[in-house]
Design brief:
The protein is α/β, with parallel strands linked by helices. The protein has one domain: Mannitol-specific EII, Chain A (3-Layer(aba) Sandwich). It is built from six helices and eight strands. A hairpin with a 2-residue loop joins strand 4 and strand 5. The longest helix has 16 residues. It is globular and about 35 Å long. The N and C termini lie far apart (about 35 Å). The relative contact order is 0.21. The N terminus is likely disordered.
């Protein structure tokens, strides 16, 4: 398979084996890797929320965990990986795989290794879960920014939360690099901040589109 190159002013570095990656601001790098997952395939409209009320980092992570839990338990894990998440229908017979507490624990465990804030009001909390079959994600903007121990000390008001299967290190890195590239575009972040609570489809399209935001 051909390898794709991604260039962004974020450096994606492994923290330790099996513990995920840190995205560090202000470093211009090019990381060749196989692109195995597209953002449109893992981000479901049900997992997008705009102008969410949260007063702390933990509460923001709780809200993100709730969105991710809804995706895990919707049955999307049992559906074809070739169908984008936004086009899949829930499986009414699916059993609950994980609750939001399990997901929150995974995100907090990663945060203990270092903040996942990228700077410029953006954070990408992420973690591994053994029970998952495919990566899932949630996109959320906040009414007011919260302290996330960011490298530039800016409060975070845009969050992309990611969960991947335990051994999906290649997918993990590829997704984080795509996300970092999106958030390196000020047009995208500003357009996301302007999306109201009812403009979820617009927020999803803005983030997943490869076209220039107008």
């Amino acid at each position: 398979m051909d390898k794709s190159e991604a260039s962004a002013s974020f450096q994606i570095e492994p923290i330790s084996p099996g513990q995920g990656y840190a995205a560090r601001l202000f470093f211009e790098v090019t990381s060749p890797f196989r692109v195995m997952v597209n953002l449109v395939d893992i981000l479901d409209i049900r997992n997008v929320a705009c102008h969410v009320g949260a007063t702390s980092k933990r509460k923001a992570l709780q809200q993100a965990s709730r969105l991710l839990s809804e995706s895990v338990n919707s049955g999307s894990q049992n559906q074809s990986p070739d169908v984008p998440a936004r086009e899949q229908q829930p499986d009414d017979d699916s059993e609950e795989l994980l609750n939001e507490v399990d997901i929150l624990d995974a995100l907090i465990e990663r945060e203990r290794l270092g903040s996942t804030a990228l700077g410029s009001g953006v954070a990408v909390p992420h973690g591994h879960l053994q029970e998952l079959q495919t990566p899932i994600a949630a996109l959320m903007t906040l009414q007011n920014g919260v302290d996330f121990d960011a490298p530039d000390d800016a409060d975070v008001d845009i969050i992309f939360a990611l969960l991947v299967p335990q051994d999906s290190n290649d997918d993990h890195l590829a997704i984080l690099s795509q996300v970092a590239s999106r958030f390196d575009n000020a047009d995208i972040t500003e357009a996301l901040r302007k999306c109201g609570p009812e403009e979820l489809n617009r927020a999803l399209d803005i983030f997943c589109s490869v076209k220039q935001v107008e």
